[in-house]
Amino acid sequence: MTLKIKRIVGKRKTRICLSGQLRYESVGQVKSEVERSGPRLALDLGEVDLVDIDAVRFLNACESAGVAILHCSPYIREWMLQERSQLKDDSEPA
Question: CA dihedral defined by 38, 19, 58, 73, rounded to 10 degrees?
Fold first, then answer.
């Protein structure tokens, strides 16, 4: 299954709705959408059913840059938190 991307532009915020599988192959396309969307942006993951590690890292980078992540499934959110924790552990001196 592929990833579908739908942009909804509102008065105050742009929302990018993703549907399907967010994987390495499609991260570049979503990144382009994010970069051209302006500062008030949200990624809606309500219909995303599968991600890979590249997608998780991309989502964490988006969140760190101030992009809101909406309707994220618990398994994706947990994986994002684990990946963030792993990066933090790896960057601390032993």
Answer: 110
For 75, the token pair is 């398994």
Torsion angle of the four alpha carbons 81, 82, 87, 89, in this order, in degrees rounded to the nearest 10: 110
By the 8 A CB rule, do 30 and 22 touch? yes
Work out the percent of the chain whose per-residue pLDDT is above 90: 81
The model's pTM is 0.89
Domains in the chain, CATH or no CATH each = 3-91 (3.30.750.24)
CA distance 89 to 12: 37
| CA–CA distance, 7 with 78 (Å, rounded to integer) | 26
- What Rg do the C-alpha atoms of the chain give, in angstroms? 13
